[in-house]
Specification:
The complex is a heterotrimer of chains A (363), B (342) and C (433). Chain A is mainly alpha-helical. Chain A is built from 14 helices and no strands. In chain A, helix 4 packs antiparallel against helix 5 and helix 5 crosses helix 11. Chain C folds into 3 domains: 44 residues, no CATH class; 198 residues, Rossmann fold (3-Layer(aba) Sandwich); 145 residues, 3-Layer(aba) Sandwich (Rossmann fold). The chains are: A mainly alpha (363), B alpha/beta (342), C alpha/beta (433). Chains A and B meet through helix 9 and helix 10 of A and helix 2, strand 7, helix 3 and helix 4 of B.
């Protein structure tokens, strides 16, 4: 019960349902705005802050090169990072509740690898049929097929893992199974690429590093709406997710249609994780760390609170990771996955150690 | 609702019928009812099928034959939300929701009544408050669930089930992991909830003593056998209890209302003494393996219990020694039972 | 044999003192398990001595070098290549490959002796002795292949890794006649592995491959262990086009054809310098940048590398010539856009074949003026049906012709009659203009 809690109200109700202080929300929004601006201002090319503001205002007295860089490179990258962070965080939250496993996330359970497999198959088919030989496609129809393939791949793996989850008692065993599936799909993709040209192998390897910079405004016309729809679906599932926290037995007794909700969770998580993977490559650790950060911050497992929190905090963390990956000032760019691992893994270890006695979803 | 029982079954048969597995009937021809204001306990040895029966009654498993009626309507016709408004559950499993404050957990019970966004109206808040007051956990309001003891946690789950405002509450071995004082406390709580709240409560448990004392009705389920039900004392007197738990070397004694192990008979002892002292002396002698009869008639050894100078004492008739504890009395008896009486 | 049996019996009987740790064998089996374990570890770790086929001397026929005169009448001199040295001695030639791969800590030494001769008495440690002229050659890469038809020794080829990638007509004909076997075993590019079984069947005198220094990718250690005469060619490390082409002398040394190599190379050298001279004094040098980004990183060739040399010699102004790096620089797309937005020409954008493809990768490429004016050229005009790019095959051996292409791109008015050979101006769509 820290300072974030509401003070006792003056109404007669001795037990108000605890709410998170509006101050906390305001602080989060402020941090998000700050990181967003930093992302626009920092990069390999030094552009002064005033110029960035001028560009955002639509002022045209700025060098054309800078305008192009900010509007066509940094702005879509920032938007992509926010959406991707929110999507991965939400997918991680849903999966942690569905499996009642604090270590579940799309990456660990092999979902991202399933999406990669879907993407690889589509790319192979495209190459075989004579379309362009590189992974990121821009046209609407090609992009849609990419999303579909990624989501289908993600759902396929998630379905298999779920079926196995029913027979497996321990959380850790399930994670190991998920990791193994990740390896299997990863190997399948590698094998597939042995049959293509060296160019694509190189492209694929670079793609596995993860990056927010590959999504242009043209991609965004499909990327953003898909993720927004996914986020809305997930947010609206909050009530049922709360019931799921108690377990499926209790959830059913409270009137939840367990089978339908489970299906929606799978579809939602696969859509979110699959789309992000299709456009940005497989990005790990955000899905695990962000829900835990939010639980610590909001001090509750209530999904009505956690859903918006995960969206905000996910956007912030993804932007921060992208900033770090660009190593402002230097000429090199670090692989995004390396940075997310450096951020996410200590968070998870810290949380596990602090709550050693309760390795539970809510802890 | 109608005046009839809240839940009743008609020729219900429960069991397992999975494809490619042989059909297994756990119990059949079950005709029972849960009435308003009654606490019913379901007893039976392990493996008799109590959980299967409970799951069928709650709708988690389909019955093999027959039907279950809730408020007069068949279970399978009810929508999940209707079912949730009439029946709520408390299960054995530990719930892993660590960080959630108690109030939020209890308010989860309002799930069938709130809108899609889960917002709590004034009615919902009142129901939560009342549930917590009934169970007696008002002072726990904002504590996170992970910090509670097992007993408090189960009370929270009962409050959650109460907040659902059901007509029927079903508890599946909800007292299993608790220590004896907590179990007694919960049993009394459930009895009050049933009587004062005018609900029907079904509790499956292994606590035979508590069930005999607190329950209004008992259901006895023996492995493969029929489900016998009735008022607890009727079942005891009609030997249904003994039959249900018949096992090698274990027997139910009507006299003491407890299970006894057939012990090695050391001999016969007559007992002179009554009241509380007499009762406990009787129990000690019986536990040590002696058949205890009333005094009178020619019997070898007779034990007298009496009070002298404010202390309780025992004496074996015909001997001088006065024992001030049952321990020394028993060791004397053991010794003398090895030597023939003089 | 009896001695070994006796030794084994003693080992089995010996006991370590009781205070020794259990793994030293103070148990009832004695020291045998320990000795067995140590021997196993030794085998698994591999012997610590380098395996080199050269260590086993071959049976030599009687006689030595030809009685009359110098065994090596033709000698080559190196003027540009720094990746290898070629020296001539009384009885043998010595080749040292100094830069087999980037930041290599090892060099490879080859001692070339005439057939039937005995190796010299002072063979440097780790050197490989090869009898020349070699008669059966297996190649692992196309960049060395082109020197064979140039020297007229393509008939010695018996195996090649990646036959479908070959462009040179003479070699293609040999492949179709079935005289060159496929020896690749999976992997591609720098990770290509060779099929050892096939090599055992072919029994080559010499196998030439590339090395990377990364053990998982390198194929030459396995070849050396199997006993093949393996040469590691470091020609791709050279930072000037003429130096790369001078490796024709490396190949020639194995066939005693240094005279042919010198003649061809001198012709090329002259032609190259003549062309470079024509554009040297020009004031108007079009600005140029090259490459394409992979995800968000643009690997731009450094100013000290061979493509930068080409561009400078072709009369262009390479926008990153200020950098000295010989390899590639990892730049962000922003930096490239800032500097190259208004560049005149864009050259070698990856594997793109049309402007449409480029747009498909990233529609922001249209921000480059070079793209808007359509002055985008790629070096993939000649590709074999199997996907091999002739630029990396024949092009390596003829830098003068490549330079002619580049001058045509940057200063077309100087060479009106020249047609682009390996390069093409990217059409908008496939099959279009």
């Amino acid at each position: 019960m820290g300072s974030w809690e509401n003070p006792r109200p003056c109404t007669g109700d001795p037990h108000p349902i605890p709410r998170v202080s509006p101050l906390l929300w305001a602080a989060l929004w402020a941090v998000l705005a700050g990181v967003f601006l930093l992302e626009l201002c920092l990069g390999s090319v030094t552009i002064p802050f005033k110029s960035v503001l001028a560009i955002l205002m639509g002022n045209s007295e700025v060098p054309e090169g800078w305008r192009q860089i900010v509007l066509l490179f940094r702005l879509p990258r920032a938007v992509t990072a926010m959406l991707a962070g929110a999507a991965l965080g939400m997918a991680g939250l849903m999966m942690q509740t569905l499996f009642r496993n604090p270590l579940a996330d799309p990456f660990v359970l092999g979902i991202s690898s399933g999406a990669s497999l879907g993407v690889a198959i589509v790319v192979m088919a495209a190459w075989g049929l004579g379309w362009t030989a590189l992974i990121q496609k821009a046209g609407i129809s090609a992009g849609a097929s990419l999303i579909l393939a990624a989501t289908a791949g993600a759902m396929g793996i998630l379905g298999i893992v779920m079926a196995l989850a029913r027979r497996v008692e321990s959380n850790v065993t399930l994670l190991i199974i998920g990791l193994m599936f990740g390896y299997i799909t990863g190997s399948l993709v590698t094998i597939l690429f042995q049959f293509t040209q060296e160019q694509q192998m190189q492209t694929y390897i670079t793609w596995t590093f993860g990056s927010f910079g590959g999504v242009t405004w043209r991609h965004m016309t499909l990327f953003a709406p898909t993720l927004l729809v996914g986020l809305l679906v997930a947010w609206s599932l909050s009530k049922s997710l709360n019931a799921f926290l108690l377990g499926e037995g209790y959830a059913r007794s409270m009137g939840v249609n367990v089978g339908a909700v489970r299906l929606w969770i799978i579809v939602g998580a696969s859509l979110l994780a699959g789309t992000v993977t299709a456009y940005c490559g497989p990005i790990g650790f955000l899905g695990i760390a962000i829900p835990h950060l939010c639980r610590m911050l909001m001090k509750t497992s209530d999904h009505h609170v956690l859903a918006p929190a995960v969206i905000l905090v996910g956007a912030i963390v993804a932007l921060a990771a992208d900033l770090l990956a660009q190593v402002p000032g230097a000429r090199v760019v670090l692989p995004l996955n390396a940075v997310t691992a450096l951020i996410g893994a200590p968070v998870v270890v810290g949380i596990i150690l602090r709550r050693r006695h309760t390795m539970e979803v809510g802890a | 609702m109608k005046g009839g029982p809240f839940l009743e079954t008609r020729d219900l048969a429960v069991g397992y019928a999975k494809p490619r597995h042989p059909r297994r009937v756990v119990v059949k021809e079950v005709n029972v009812a849960l009435k308003r204001g009654e606490l019913t306990c379901l007893l039976g040895p392990n493996g008799a099928g109590k959980s299967t029966l409970i799951r069928t009654l709650c709708g988690m498993q389909p019955p093999l034959e027959g039907k279950v009626l809730l408020g007069g309507e068949p279970l399978e016709k009810l929508s999940p939300s209707d079912l949730a408004r009439r029946m709520s559950l408390v299960l054995t499993e530990r719930v892993a929701v660590g960080m959630m404050p108690v109030v939020t957990l209890v308010s989860l019970g309002r799930h069938p009544y709130t809108d899609w966004a889960g917002r709590l109206g004034p009615q919902d808040r009142e129901a939560v408050r009342r549930a917590m007051a009934d169970v007696g956990i008002e002072f726990l309001g904002h504590r996170p669930v992970c910090e509670l003891s097992d007993g408090e946690r189960q009370k929270v789950m009962i409050a959650r089930a109460l907040a659902q405002e059901p007509q029927v509450m079903v508890l599946d071995e909800a007292t299993a992991f608790l220590d004896l004082p907590r179990r007694v406390e919960l049993m009394h709580l459930l009895r009050n909830l049933a009587h004062e709240g005018r609900r029907a409560i079904l509790l499956s448990t292994h606590d035979l003593d508590l069930a005999l004392r607190c329950a209004d009705r008992l259901w006895l389920l023996s492995p493969g056998g029929p489900l016998v039900h009735g008022v607890p004392e009727d079942l005891v007197l009609s030997d249904a209890f003994a039959q249900t738990f018949a096992d090698a070397g274990v027997s139910f004694d009507k006299g003491s209302g407890a299970f006894t192990l057939a012990a090695r008979q050391r001999g016969t002892v007559a007992l002179s003494g009554n009241g509380v002292l007499g009762m406990w002396t009787y129990r000690a002698l019986e536990r040590a393996g002696y058949r205890v009869v009333q005094e009178g008639g020619h019997v070898g050894t007779c034990v007298e219990s009496f009070e002298a100078d404010g202390k309780v004492c025992w004496r074996i008739r015909g001997q001088q020694t006065i024992h001030y504890s049952l321990e020394s009395l028993l060791s004397r008896l053991h010794a003398s039972s090895h030597t023939p009486p003089s | 044999m009896k001695g070994i049996a006796r030794l084994a019996r003693c080992a089995g009987r010996w006991r370590f003192p009781a205070w020794a740790p259990w793994f030293l064998g103070s148990g009832r089996h004695g020291a045998m398990p320990t000795l067995l374990a140590v021997w196993l570890c030794w085998c698994l770790a591999g012997t610590p001595f380098p395996v080199h086929a050269a260590a086993s001397p071959k049976v030599t026929a009687p006689g030595g070098p030809t009685a009359l005169g110098d065994p090596f009448p033709h000698r080559a001199q190196l003027r540009y290549a720094t990746g290898f040295t070629l020296s001539y001695h009384d009885t043998h030639k010595e080749i040292q490959v100094l830069t087999p791969w980037r930041d290599a800590r090892v060099t490879f030494t080859y001692i070339l002796i005439p057939r039937g001769a005995s190796p010299p008495s002072s063979v440097p440690p780790g050197a490989m002795v090869v009898e020349i002229p070699v008669q059966r050659v297996v190649l692992g890469t196309t960049t060395i292949l082109t020197f064979f038809p140039m020297l007229g020794v393509e008939e010695t080829l018996v195996g090649f890794s990646g036959r479908k990638l070959v462009n040179t007509p003479e070699v293609v004909r040999l492949i179709e006649e079935g005289r060159i076997e496929e020896v690749s075993a999976g992997g591609d590019g720098m990770t290509r592995q060779l099929n050892l079984e096939m090599l055992f069947m072919l029994q080559p005198d010499l196998v030439l491959v590339h090395g990377t220094g990364i053990p998982q990718f390198d194929t030459h250690p396995k070849l050396l262990e199997a006993g093949f005469k393996t040469g590691v060619a470091g020609n791709y490390m050279e930072s000037s086009p003429l130096a790369r082409a001078e490796w024709i002398k490396f190949v020639a040394a194995f066939f005693n054809r240094e005279n042919v190599a010198e003649k061809l190379f001198s012709q090329m050298e002259e032609s190259y310098h003549a062309q470079a001279e024509r554009v040297r004094g020009l004031k108007d040098r079009p600005t140029v940048f090259c490459g394409m980004p992979l995800q968000s990183t643009w690997y731009m060739p450094g100013g000290g590398g061979y493509i930068a040399t080409f561009l400078r010699d072709a009369g262009a102004d390479y926008l990153w010539s200020d950098d000295d790096t010989a390899g590639n620089m990892a730049l962000s797309v922003e930096v490239v856009l800032e500097r190259a937005r208004n560049a005149d020409v864009w050259i070698n954008p990856g594997a793109a074949g049309t402007m449409d493809e480029l747009l498909g990768v990233d529609e922001r490429f249209s921000l480059f003026r070079a793209f808007q004016t359509g002055r985008v050229y790629n070096n993939n005009a000649r590709i074999s049906p199997g996907g091999g790019n002739d630029y990396w095959e024949t092009g390596v051996g003829r830098p003068d012709r490549v330079l002619a292409d580049l001058i045509k791109i940057f200063h077309p008015e100087l060479v009106p009659s020249h047609e682009l050979y390996w390069h093409q101006k990217l059409p908008w769509q496939r099959g279009g203009k």
